[in-house]
Amino acid sequence: MAVTGEETETGTPTDLSACHLRNPGTSSSQGGTGITGLSAFSSKQPTTDSIHKREIRLLKNREAARECRRKKKEYVRCLENRVAILEKQNKTLIDELRAMKEMYRHE
C-alpha cells in the first residue's frame, strides 16, 4: 500500500501501527503539512543506500575541495612569479629611462 499525504485513516490496523496518518480535521504536531509518519520516519532513519550515497558525495566533495585548494595555490604561486618578473622588468625600465635622461641632460 502506497502512503501519500492525501490519505486519511484507511488500511489495516497493521498499516496504521507503522505510521500515524493525519486526520484532516485535527491539527498535527508536524506543523499540519499533511506528511505522514512514514515519510517522517524514513527521513529520520536513512537507509543504508542513502547513507552510502551521502558518504560517496562527501568523499567526492572533499576531493574536489582539495583539488580546488591545490589549483588555487598553484594560481597564486604563478601570480607571485609574474609579479616578481614584472617588478624586475619595471626596475630595469626605470633604470634605463634614468640613464637616457642623464645622457640627454649632458648633451
UniProtKB/TrEMBL annotation:
One Gene Ontology term of the molecular function aspect: RNA polymerase II cis-regulatory region sequence-specific DNA binding
Signal peptide: none
Coiled coil residues, start to end: 69-103
Subcellular location: Nucleus
Ranges of Polar residues composition bias in the record: 39-49
SMART domains from the UniProt entry: BRLZ
GO CC annotations on file: nucleus; transcription regulator complex
Protein name: BZIP domain-containing protein
Organism encoding this protein: Neogobius melanostomus
